[in-house]
Amino acid sequence: MNVKRYALRLAALLLILMSLTGVTMAQQNWAAPCVPAPYDHAYQSDTLSVAIKRYERDGIVYWVADVQVKDAKQLKAGLSSDKPNGREEQMEAIASRNGAVIAINGDYYGAHKYGTIIRNGQLIRSTRTTRNMLIVDQFGDMSVRVDRDQDKVPQLGNDLAAQGVWQTFEFGPELVRDGQAVTFSPKFDVISTRDTRREPRTALGQIGPLHYIIVVADGRQDGYSKGMTLPELQQVFIEHGAVTAMNLDGGGSTELWFQGNVISHPFGGGKRTISDIVFF
Q: What is the mean pLDDT of residues 127-142?
């Protein structure tokens, strides 16, 4: 048997084995998702892997999404009316127009004038705030800025933009740092951090390089889902291997969108208009 014919037969045999085991070339390039199979929703291409699991525990319905990308710039922000401080829109409109596979509501920066806002590398504003800031750098790595007393604005925004920071989200509180639940700062006054306060929640975190985790909890719906406390949200991230995580805008803004459909059950029916989304 000549070498060429042998190589062709070997390649054919490998393809057959891969089809029998359900393994594709694309699947071989991704880390194991942080959620167990079978997934409720999934998507995979050469540059994006999404696995979503729905959980129902102790009267809380929530979603955990494992997202992996090949390039940091795939973690994108969508703006209402496609411009800073544009006319607010429902999340579905922003996600559809941007061709998102998976999307969540962002920090609703348009509802206030505080903080340093960078979206897709563009500095929008830099003002004083008591909020926590989730920073996504040019490599896609996340960190959270908590102590804002010493912020020098607007210089802070210019410095971060000059460093190549890709996104900043201003909300909070920080949930997980170095894989551990953080103690909430008494200076944080944007939302209640009481351990008994239950709300719909949207939060974003990182597991590893270009490997992210989204948690969305439905709430304020008696008989369906009562919402999640911040300590419960922290525990979900830790259970799924997050090293960094921060809470985003929640309540009536909380929404999880996947391939053309809202798959969570937003309080109020998901009709709220917002200023921004996070999408892949």
A: 98
